[in-house]
Design goal:
The protein has 6 helices and no strands. With 145 residues, the protein is an all-alpha fold. The longest helix has 20 residues. The radius of gyration is 15 Å and the shape is globular.
Length: 145
């Protein structure tokens, strides 16, 4: 679950709820993919795949609900989320609309993560769906390229 929570600003007023540990574990999962992770490695690392990452995702879902009724926190999450989206867009250099494609991939990621945590789909199915969507986004080319 991306939620824009991987980057922290100095003025971010977050409750002590373990999200710094979650961000560290997510970072470790991405780093484990290698020194220069690509779109597949980054987005699939954010999917819950085991008990620890599922618990982390549940905590993030709860925090999103908490933040959604606290505008100052929601604003920070939105700003950070847009930054993450923009980073993902840079990994889609040939897509005709990389920012929209990045938004769609992140929305899919969040939905898949939620569905895994409630048991509606398996982690393997979520990974397959995410991989397929990434492949489709990477295959889209602007005219003339």
């Amino acid at each position: 679950m991306h939620s824009g929570n991987l980057h922290r600003t100095d003025h971010d007023e977050r409750p002590k709820d373990g999200r710094d540990g979650i961000a560290g574990r997510i970072g470790e999962r991405i780093t484990a993919a290698g020194p220069d992770p690509g779109l597949h490695q980054i987005l699939t690392a954010l999917l819950p795949t085991d008990a620890e990452s599922t618990a982390d995702t549940r905590t993030l879902i709860g925090y999103l609900a908490f933040a959604s009724v606290r505008p100052h926190i929601a604003e920070t999450l939105a700003t950070n989320g847009r930054g993450f989206r923009d980073h993902i867009a840079t990994l889609l250099p040939y897509h005709p609309e990389p920012t929209k494609a990045a938004s769609a991939l992140l929305a899919l990621l969040d939905g898949l993560a939620l569905h895994v945590t409630v048991g509606q789909i398996s982690a393997d199915d979520a990974r397959a769906l995410m991989t397929s969507a990434i492949d489709e986004a990477l295959a889209r080319r602007s005219r003339g390229r």
